[in-house]
Structure formats: C-alpha cells, structure tokens
Protein: biotin--[biotin carboxyl-carrier protein] ligase
Organism: Streptomyces mordarskii
Amino acid sequence: MNATALRRGLVRPGGLWTEFEVVQATGSTNTDLVIRARAGAPEGAVLVAEEQTAGRGRLDRAWTAPARSGLFFSILLRPADAGVPTERWGWLPLLAGVASAGALSRTAGVDTALKWPNDLLVTVAGEERKFGGILAERAGDAVVIGMGLNVSLRADELPVPTAGSLALADAISTDRDPLLRAVLRSIAEWYGEWCRFEGDPGASGLQESYAAGCATLGRQVRAELPGGRERVGEAVAIDGDGRLVLATEGGVQEPVSAGDIVHLRSVPREE
C-alpha cells in the first residue's frame, strides 16, 4: 500500500479522517486502536495493517488471511462529540456495512450484500460467500470499528471453503489502495449524515439502506442464542434499534439483537 498517497487523499482539513497509519504487521488493529482511543487519540484515526496475526471477529472468533491479501483496518469514532446518544451507537457497525458494500460494489464492480449483523457477502460460483466482517468495540466515549475484507485470496488460501473474496467473485479491480480509499470516503459520508441527524437511523436513511441491501431479510432463519436457546422465523425487518425482527410461528414478531446472537443461519422452508 502507498501510505503517503492514501494519507494525502484522505486526511484533509475539515474531513473526518485525521490520522492515517499503515503498519506491516500487528496482532489486531482493533486492539491497538482501542488502546490509543483510551489514551485520547482523536476521532478519525485510521490504522491499517498489511497483516494481522491475531485478527478478531465477533465473540472473539479468529479472522485469518495471508499478508497483503485483503484490507485489514480499524477506525476511531467519537459520536458523542456530535451529540449522538449512546443508545444509537449500535448502528455504527451496520453503517460501516452499508458504506462498505456500496463502495466496493462501485469500485470493484461486484454485487455485495449484507448478512445481519456484521458480515459482507459476494457470490462465487452461484453461492453466497462471506468475504468481510465488521467488529465494533466501545472504548470509553469512543467506538472503534474494525474491518477485514478478503480481496485477492485464491481458493487455496481461504480460511474455510465457504469463504469468498473479491477476486473469486470476478472483481474488475483488486487494487487495495483505491478500494480502501473508496470505503473510507463512503464511511465518512454516511457517518456525517448519521451524525447530522443525531444518529437517527430513519431520518438519515441508514435504516432503509441497510434493509435494502440485507440478504437476510425475507429468509427463514435460525437465531442461535446463548445457553442453547434458539428462535426460528422469517426475517422480516430491521427495527429502529438495529435489531433483526423475526416473524415466528403464530404470527408473533420478535426482535433479536446482535449482542444476543451466537449464530444466525438460513434454514430451508418446508414445502
């Protein structure tokens, strides 16, 4: 990656991005940036790694990929400074998903979709595959959002056979510099609009845009919850709190939150 050119294109007076750093390797960009956030790092700090040796997803699941095969980065946001109440901060990972999916669709020329709550999907050989994940962590009055996106991985490099990458989805470009620039600019635009409406997902258009790009909606799913519990139903909506609304047997609509989900799986409909 050309850190100098990326910094010149992204860090501008009056813009969201205030610091931009690329490191060759680290355990986890999220872990590093959470430490910096607690030490007072400014909003808009961006940390990118060419390789992560201890990348994490939700529930401390491992995220692995070869060096320089993807985009591995974290961003630091301070929504309280814009007057966004804390009860709306749960929309930030969904905002990152909407922004990234749109940017990658345009720049890589690949249709992308969102799997609630934190995955990005592409189609490889007629199958939906996960190629990206998002992890948001609270650090005092800041939120650190980390993203891992498989860009150039070949089939023999995938962490699991069911994963995907932009290259395997026949992207028109796998040049990571313009891809990262597009993602960060899109996040900045969406974040600015969301903050302008004090985090209101309806007024900012975020709730509608997330629902429009969410492949989970309209499907029969099984939500696996802690303690071996589960909920099965059709995913019918994303509510104002960013929760997935399931229409269960008997017509009851029940919301489930990202914090309650261990796994969310599609299940075949009964004929």
Observations:
- The two ends are 51 Å apart (CA to CA).
